[in-house]
Amino acid sequence: MKITIIDAIEDYLTYITYNDNKSSNTIKSYRLDLLAYQKYLHENNIIYFSDISYKLVMNYLTISLNSKKNSSISRSKSAIRELHKYISYKHEIKDVTTNITVSQSMRSLPIYCSIDEINIIMNSFDDNNLKELLDHSILELIYGCGLRVSEATNLTISEVNLESKFLNVIGKGDKQRIVPIPDRTFKVIQKYFLNARPLWKKGKTNLFFINHFGKHITKEHVEKKLKEVCKKNQLSNKITPHKLRHSYATHLLANGADLRVIQKLLGHQDITTTEIYTHVDKNKLLNDYRNYFKPVKKDK
């Protein structure tokens, strides 16, 4: 019995919802990508999954080049390939997407900060002001450990080991990864933890970062503060918390870190996601990165 495209997509989405480690945001994006793909196929009078050809898939991706961002094209390609792989295996249908690739030129390079920009941002805070110390700590941790903003704001006390200087990060799909805390980053977050958090803690919260009301720090708060700092220092308005994460990966690679190591530190499931950082000029950043993370001198 032939399976329709509608049934195939719903079957696949149900599968990844309950049996895969993809985040809810990824699943939501995949759904939108595949519904757009379904619409295109139906417009070409393709009803059954087995009637999809290699040419049709390539035509769809080519059309997408003119209407989507590069990152969206790459994600859409992944969604389509995974759909075909799953349905082909389950229903013994030929996988017509096996040889489909998206060239590197179709993928946009990540926007990242220079070391000078990182220094300007991090030096903008007065760490004797506890509210500024909080904002500095979060941004320093996002950059210094390559965290997603949600990962930083959701960290708990038990996930931040100040003795061994490691984080136990819970990332997308509840996957855990261990990330070392650089000395410069450690110095800032330790000062926050010892001076600000004890004053602000109200009740039994296990969150590492809390505001002066003892409440959870929102993603919007972090984005707003970074935007204010960039505007004050006349930096690019394109710098976001996620761009700090891009900067972490870019600077690590420039410092000679292995791509597989960076993949683990970022929590990428697929190495191809990490490979985008290999297109950045390593030599340009190497010395500055080493200077930024040079050992912190102990106070006498």
What can you see in these coordinates?
- It is a single chain.
- The protein is mostly helical and 300 residues long.
- The chain folds into 2 domains: 5-103, Tyrosine recombinase, N-terminal domain (DNA polymerase, domain 1), CATH 1.10.150.130; 115-292, Intergrase catalytic core (hpI Integrase, Chain A, Orthogonal Bundle), CATH 1.10.443.10.
- Helices cover 55% and strands 4% of the residues.
- It has a 3-stranded antiparallel beta sheet with strand order 1-2-3, with helices on one face.
- Strand 1 (160-161) and strand 2 form a beta hairpin.
- Helix 6 (130-145) runs antiparallel to helix 8 (183-195).
- The longest helix has 22 residues, at 70-91.
- The radius of gyration is 22 Å and the shape is elongated.
Overview in brief:
Residues 103-107 and 281-285 have low confidence and may be disordered. 55% of the residues lie in helices and 4% in strands. It has two domains: 5-103, Tyrosine recombinase, N-terminal domain (DNA polymerase, domain 1); 115-292, hpI Integrase, Chain A (Orthogonal Bundle).
Which properties best describe this structure?
single chain; 300 residues; mainly alpha; hpI Integrase, Chain A; 55% helix; 4% strand
Q: State the CATH class of the largest domain.
A: Mainly Alpha
Secondary structure tally: strands: 3
Main β sheet profile: 3 strands, antiparallel
Task: Return the average pLDDT rounded to an integer.
Answer: 85
Strand order, sheet with most strands: 1-2-3
**Helix coverage percent:** 55-70%
- The 3D shape can be described as elongated
What Rg do the Cα atoms give?
22 Å
What CATH architecture of the largest domain do you see? Answer: Orthogonal Bundle
Separation of the first and last Cα atoms: 78 Å
Question: Which class do the helix and strand fractions yield?
Answer: mainly alpha
Fill in the CATH topology of the largest domain: hpI Integrase, Chain A
Low-confidence stretches: 103-107, 281-285
CATH superfamily of the largest domain: Intergrase catalytic core
User: What's the number of structural domains?
Assistant: 2
Query: What order do the SSEs take from the amino end to the carboxyl end, as H and E?
Result: HHHHHHHEEEHHHHHHH
So how many helices? 14
